[in-house]
Specification:
By secondary structure, this protein is mainly α. The chain is 63% helix and 6% strand. Helix 4 crosses helix 6 and helix 4 packs across helix 7.
């Protein structure tokens, strides 16, 4: 496989050694995470596009309104409606009355939708070979470093 887009974007003139190290680390993480075949594998396994899987996983984690879903996915509300319509046609989600806002509907997963979301999670959470070949202490160090970086970036792991 040729050089990844993420790697090309992560390289460039470094203004200091820390910036170069950050670019190298980011490039390696992108290669492990973005360039693996997980998206295709999960899409094939559950017969949904990866975008639909993303939406289903968010809804399975917590019921939400269409607006909340659009915000979590970074898409506009009309497109969120199309996504939910398709998931609903497939029997994976349903719209229910919001408990405190009569004007809104909550989107929730059906039993089948929850099962498929969990199946997708299992596939997506399986570490790539490059990680499973590391020692326990290397994995613990890496996990601590990445959790710290995620916290510094103010990233909620559930979104």
């Amino acid at each position: 496989m040729g050089e990844s887009k993420a790697r090309r974007m992560a390289t460039g003139p470094a203004s200091n050694p820390d910036a170069d190290s950050a670019r190298r680390a980011w490039s390696a993480m992108c290669d492990l995470v973005l360039d693996n075949e997980r998206r295709r594998e999960v899409s094939d396994a559950v017969d949904l596009s990866f975008g639909r899987i993303r939406a289903l996983r968010r809804i399975a984690s917590t019921p939400m309104t269409m607006g909340e879903l659009a915000g979590k996915l970074g898409i506009d509300a009309p497109y969120a409606t199309l996504v939910v319509d398709e998931l609903e046609r497939r029997g994976l989600v349903e719209r229910r009355p919001h408990p405190s806002d009569r004007r809104a509907k909550l989107v929730t997963t059906t039993t089948r939708g929850t099962t498929i979301a969990h199946q997708a999670e299992e596939i997506l959470n399986r570490p790539p070979l490059g990680l499973t070949s590391l020692s326990g202490s290397e994995l613990e160090s890496l996990a601590m470093i990445l959790e710290h970086a995620r916290a510094q970036a103010n990233i909620d792991p559930r979104t």
